[in-house]
Amino acid sequence: MSSALPKLDALDLETLRQRKSEKWGTYPRSILPAWVAEMDYPLAASIDRVLRDAVERGDVGYPIAPNDTGLREVFAARMEDRFGWAPDPRDVEILSDVVQGMTLAVERFSDPGDGVVVQTPIYPPFLGAVRETRRRLDENVLVDGPNGYEIDFDALAAGTDERTRILLFCNPHNPTGRVFTRAELERLAELALERDWVVVTDEIHGDLVYPGGEHIPFATLAPEVAKRTVTLTSATKAFNIPGLRCACAHFGSSELRRRFNAPPKHVRGGLGYLGLYATAAAWSEGQPWLDHVLAYLEGNRDFLAGFVAERFPGAVHTPPQSTYLAWVDFRPLALPESPFRFFYDRAQVAISDGRAFGASGEGYGRINFATSRPLLTRILEAMARALEER
Ligand SMILES: Cc1ncc(COP(=O)(O)O)c(C=O)c1O
């Protein structure tokens, strides 16, 4: 292992507590945070260098036009290298974040009252994107199957109609961590073609897939599928730089891109210089760091699954195929309050409240395991004790 790779087992709690980002800055210091999707690890060396160099030069002026930074080419090269997808850089727009892209896409590709398909439980901003644009939520609840959480295609066909305009898809899926198979993606694509849906696919977790899984970009399924697909991604999850605000949107047709770009340019706001160059550094030079982190996360994932099976008797958990988030069904334990409230009050641990992921998340909790093994152990031990003492 190169000395440039961080020691992930040796994170210092006091240093983490000084972070001002959402994960560490929201709750009092007595609470151990295991909620929002931020990782506790040190930055990749390539990102660290770009940021330090900029600060040393006092180089935080206006960025040059995002399209001239070379980031679109870096994005295309990364997609080809990682997923065998060779998008044309000219079909890429640079955005400030993925949620901006999904919200704007819903707004631009449908009208108020139109249906938007979402596989729930889901990362809460998907629900916000539908609600805030006054679209109809065509909820497609994931069901238990041999692969863990699976798409219920019968319910999907039955729960949509001629007013359904968009499939707002999340692959890999947050919070379940499912990496959908080619067969599943093809069935969805077939339906999208048959029903003339625009597919807006959030693939931000595509770089966080564990061995055994394969991330298949939706746009690679077939040329006619690509034409109706908008792909959203960024380096912010896998490389843990969400505060730097930068994402990419790829449009499968110039018509989709034209409609997306119709609002006045400044409505989207400007992009920060640091995010643009940190993203390029992550994608072009950060892979050794990511390989190292992913191997560690896989160990945490397996440790957590074993711990839940042994120490949270009755809780149901399918280890995620991607992401550093564990989705746990606490309903069989009949806790006296929501899992979030229960563990917050009795274990001083903040997990994500399942209810925020839609009605089908009621009674669930999402645990972020992207921390050191000692801290994860401390979090899980505190949760287990709270269960034992109830
Ligand atoms: C599925 C998914 N999409 C988007 C985001 C956020 O992306 P951004 O910060 O670029 O809006 C997250 C963050 O956790 C996520 O899990």
Structural overview:
It is a single chain. The chain has a 7-stranded mixed β-sheet with strand order 2-10-9-8-7-3-4, with helices on both faces. The protein folds into 2 domains: 13-43 and 287-388, Aspartate Aminotransferase, domain 1 (Alpha-Beta Complex); 66-285, Aspartate Aminotransferase, domain 2, CATH 3.40.640. The protein has 390 residues and is α/β, with parallel strands linked by helices. The mean pLDDT is 97. It is built from 14 helices and 15 strands. Helix 6 links the parallel strand 3 and strand 4. The protein has helices spanning 13-17, 22-25, 45-57, 71-83, 98-109, 124-132, 153-158, 182-195, 223-226, 254-260, 273-285, 287-311, 339-347, 373-388, and strands at residues 32-33, 92-95, 115-120, 136-141, 143-145, 148-150, 164-170, 198-202, 229-233, 247-251, 316-317, 325-329, 349-350, 352-353, 364-368. Bound molecules: pyridoxal-5'-phosphate.
Keywords:
390 residues, alpha/beta, four-stranded antiparallel β-sheet, globular, binds pyridoxal-5'-phosphate
**Ligand species:** pyridoxal-5'-phosphate
Q: Give the structural class.
A: alpha/beta
- Shape descriptor reads globular
Give the full name of the CATH homologous superfamily of the largest domain. Answer: Type I PLP-dependent aspartate aminotransferase-like (Major domain)
Strand order of the largest sheet: 2-10-9-8-7-3-4
Sheet with most strands: 7 strands, mixed
Give unreliable regions as ranges: none
The appropriate CATH architecture of the largest domain is: 3-Layer(aba) Sandwich
Number of domains: 2
Residues in helix, %: 25-40%
**Radius of gyration over alpha carbons?**
21 Å
Strand content: 15-25%
CATH class of the largest domain: Alpha Beta
Query: Distance N terminus to C terminus?
Result: 44 Å
